[in-house]
Write a structure and sequence with these properties.
The structure is a homodimer. By secondary structure, chain A is α+β, with helices and mostly antiparallel strands. Chain A contains 15 helices and 16 strands. In chain A, the strands form 3 sheets. Chain A has an 8-stranded mixed sheet. A 5-stranded mixed sheet of chain A has the order 13-12-14-15-16, with helices on both faces. In chain A, strands 2-4-3 form a 3-stranded antiparallel sheet. In chain A, helix 1 packs antiparallel against helix 5, helix 5 packs across helix 11 and helix 10 packs antiparallel against helix 11. The longest helix of chain A has 20 residues. Chain A is elongated. Chain A starts with 15 loop residues before the first helix and ends with a helix. The interface between A and B is large, with 97 and 98 residues.
Chain lengths: 435, 435
């Protein structure tokens, strides 16, 4: 009896051609994070429930994979922010602040499987802990701008807002329970105006307040126009004015950090559901893939780790949901999957006696740092060439051809079928020149 | 009430300076695997128990993290070989064979925490599936040779043996239950000759057979000497002779794949505990760190996935236990941990007014692909320099110095304290020239 080989629903597992592209994206992200001086962090996948869930509750807690081992209640991490908070609190005397870290690892959430939702997914996070300087809010976005540019996107929009602006406005219209309102505002674009109005009315907002609020969050224009517009509202609320000031500073910092104006907008509808944000909040959308929603979200918090330590740890961070992004790009046909090998060159043998020479050629190329696969099976040459084409190699080096004289091999460029006889001593130079 | 921030025993979590070195090692390993044409694979951490445990049993099964979610029995992967078997069986019609994959991910085993044992650790695996050619047995070792060379080790020994030699010898001395004997032989170096003798006697071996066996596995010399020695034993057992032939072929292939003779030995005591190996088996030791034991083990198997498919999937593979290796090197003081940042340069501001210029410099350096951190806090310059030294930056670029003329900044090389005034337009070139 054979066991059927299969995986659970809601888990992404890729074929080699896809995995190669996924890893390329991941490396671009990691390399860009390091370019800005963020240090890597790797935390355990499993932590003690009492530690990891110290602050959790509600919907999040229901989705957590929990289990018991011996006398320990354990759970799998459901994000990278809580482990970061725990890490920073635990190692605060060994770390130097401001502490800039990145973490690109899997997290697990037992969500109801549905289109585009995963139970296991990569998050790519950066945070700067221990700075209140709003330059860091913009620097985080500069990293994101660089990441998406390096990933080959041109048409993306980094959208920012500030919690203080929203909270200040709600205070101004005399409304207290801002957390609930923020959650409704946050999903404004996903539901009808009528539903939104009903939900806000259920919270106790008057029709007039609702009208003001919806008019307010839909103020649009360039960043300068929106900031002017907000200032002209003449709302004399301390928090509101502070929020405008912060929005203005972050916008200016973004420009001086090289973010192109057409990749950047203020959007007063962005609230972010999470409670811990206290200032700047952000989302990023790919203009050509509106269905994906925000590919990258984050914001500023006053207290990262207040359930673990009395020390104030203000900071700012952002998270890219890579698994979902990759899945959507794959489905949109935007991921090139013609290559199933990281190697450029396949070394094939025209006859079994030539295999020894193939071994030598493969080693010469590898020593020249050219990724090379050695074909070891005793197949007809035509079948080896078919394998090379199917796997997506750029070159096949063929040994043992009668036409090739002593000390020469045949090199075939697969894209053009152009074929050359090349001296073995020149083989690495030839490949490097023709890549 | 604050929750104490801590992690479980048996889990490795590193400080940034250590993590940077860990990641460097991991990248060397991944890059070398790709240089040889192995394609990346990433499988779910969680799989269905009925699938992942189809073949497991005994000690392994006791160590597996198992839990239930809804109606599913789940477990965390305990190695990368079983997920590979499942993957290859599941995707056999989409993959092209021989299939060469690498996988560098965490696995989990609920072992009793003890010195040098981890419950979560990275395995770095390569396998070639679908080839019986013994050239692949040697090619796997060529990758390992290259990995340890690139990691900076010179004094390491790749040790090979062949299960058929051992099994054939046991048949020759008329002993049937080879699996049990192999497990005892495998731990020969870890216990006294007397204990080994007792354990073998308990299995029913006669004193004469034990003497022969222990004499046999301790045959030593160069690979050629050992092979000659084995041939001269005149043991006329089909399996034994086949084993010698394979050992000889793999040894010769290793030399033609560029493995230095002093990094390579035949060791007849290597048996490997796992049942699925059928031919070549290997281990690698670091000569200067004998206490670590084998840092990298593997071998050839006739059937990778016979619990999932009827298709024959012979292959060969190896696994590096990176977490344990890193931990031991760290404890031996062999890991340099003087740098807590991936950035080369810190941009500091002599006064808050210079921060704008610092932003510009940081962006110029990043655009030149020089990893750069921008110091954002309003600290005294002396404190910024202390931060730079403590974090291990190579250079500090200081803006806003009175001595520096218009369009110039001060660059300080921290190792030498040499300080230069550099034109802003030349800053990237200056850093690149002085790195």
């Amino acid at each position: 009896m054979k066991t059927e080989p299969k995986i659970l629903a809601g888990y992404m597992e890729l074929l080699p051609a896809q995995q190669i592209q996924f890893n390329k994206m991941l490396r671009v992200i990691q390399d860009t994070f390091e370019l800005y001086g963020f240090a890597p962090l790797d935390t355990p996948a499993i932590e003690m429930s009492q530690v990891l869930l110290a602050k959790a509750g509600g919907e999040t807690e229901k989705q957590i994979y929990k289990f018991t081992r011996g006398k320990n209640d354990l759970c799998l991490r459901f994000d990278l922010t809580v482990p970061l908070a725990r890490y920073v609190a635990q190692r605060q005397n060994q770390l130097v602040f401001p502490f800039k870290r990145y973490q690109t690892q899997k997290v697990w959430r037992a969500e109801r499987p549905q289109k585009g939702r995963f139970r296991e997914f990569y998050q790519c996070d950066i945070d700067i802990i221990g700075s209140k300087n709003l330059l860091t809010d913009a620097e985080i976005l500069s990293v994101i701008y660089q990441v998406f540019t390096r990933l080959g996107f041109e048409r993306f929009t980094i959208k920012i807002n500030n919690r203080k602006v929203l909270n200040g406005f709600l205070q101004f219209i005399n409304f207290k329970d801002s957390a609930q309102v923020l959650r409704i505002i946050d999903k404004l674009e996903k539901q009808s105006q009528q539903n939104t109005t009903e939900e806000l009315a259920n919270l106790g907002l008057t029709p007039d307040a609702i009208k003001k609020l919806l008019g307010f969050v839909q103020i649009c224009g360039t960043p300068d126009q929106i900031i002017n517009n907000l200032q002209q509202l003449n709302i004399n609320n301390r928090q509101f004015l502070q929020g405008i000031k912060e929005l203005k500073t972050v916008s200016q910092n973004m420009l001086s950090l090289g973010i192109e104006p057409n990749n950047f907008a203020i959007d007063l509808k962005i609230a972010r559901g999470l409670d811990y944000y206290t200032g700047t909040v952000y989302e990023t959308i790919l203009n050509d893939y509106p269905q994906i929603g925000s590919v990258c979200s984050g914001g500023r918090y006053d207290n990262l780790a207040n359930c673990y330590t009395n020390r104030d740890l203000p900071g700012v961070g952002v998270s890219i949901g890579l698994t979902r992004l990759f899945d959507q790009l794959l489905k949109a046909g935007s991921i090139k999957t013609s290559t199933s090998t990281p190697a450029q060159v396949l070394v094939a043998s025209a006859n079994p006696a030539a295999l020894n020479q193939s071994v030598k050629i493969a080693q010469i190329l590898r020593q020249a740092n050219i990724a090379t696969e050695l074909f070891t099976e005793d197949y007809l040459l035509s079948k080896q060439l078919k394998y090379a084409a199917r796997q997506g190699f750029k070159f096949v080096v063929i040994t043992g051809m009668r036409e090739a004289g002593e000390g020469k091999v045949t090199v075939k460029k697969l894209a053009t079928s152009v074929q050359d006889e090349v001296k073995i001593s020149d083989i690495a130079i030839y490949i490097n020149n023709h890549i």
